Amino acid sequence: MPRKIIAGNWKMNHDLPTGLQLIEAVADYLRENVPQKVEVVMATPYLHLAEGRKIAQDTPISLAAQDCSAHEEGAYTGEVSTGMLASAGTELVIVGHSERRQYHAENDALLRQKLERCWEKGLLPILCVGEREEDRDAGRQKAVVRKQLEGALEGCSEHQLENLVIAYEPVWAIGTGRTATPEEAQEMHHFIRQYLIEAYSATLADEASLLYGGSLKPANAHELLRQPDIDGGLIGGASLKAADFCALIKAGEELLR
Prior knowledge:
CATH architecture: Alpha-Beta Barrel
Number of strands: 8
Strand content: 15-25%
Largest sheet: 8 strands, parallel
CATH class: Alpha Beta
Oligomer: single chain
Strand order of the largest sheet: 7-6-5-4-3-2-1-8
Helix content: 40-55%
Distance between the termini: 9 Å
């Protein structure tokens, strides 16, 4: 059975005191409402990871980085390696978010290297895939997602992919106020699961955790999280306030099967 995950991606938000207060607020909620079905992940800026780990250490919260370097160490100013992240208590890493692809020109070959660095250090990567508005309008959404999967996962073994989460993020629904309909989201999650069957095995596909990453919030959680191939969410704006994020954790507990 796939892992059920409610993951918050803060992006470039919250200074250190505000971010630590948010982690503390979610930790307090989880101490009183221990989740039985969902794993809770908070993907913070690098700044918050070490101190945030101390706050969350007695709770079900796992901390994630929003990116990592493709290099292990060396003269790469501004980069943060997976070894550094692991030493700070980080457990997961987002790889290939659409904003990294768009603003930093990250390609599939680079993402393949980042996946390797994550696995080498025992970190669980969350690989993001998804199409732009023009791709969907032209009916190319499945071809785009397949190409992204093939490129990032080229040469990966089934054993490696047992330690991988895939997040589908329709780029046209991120920060735009638009949301994929439950049917659109389910169709693409089902397509990704079918791809894993074809490229690897039904066993791997059945166990793979597929998250929806397109403006999931309390108002639309019921329709999206009840879809059969959606195993949770990679949440942006709604993860920046404790009340909203905790409402999504609660929805995951109630709706994810």
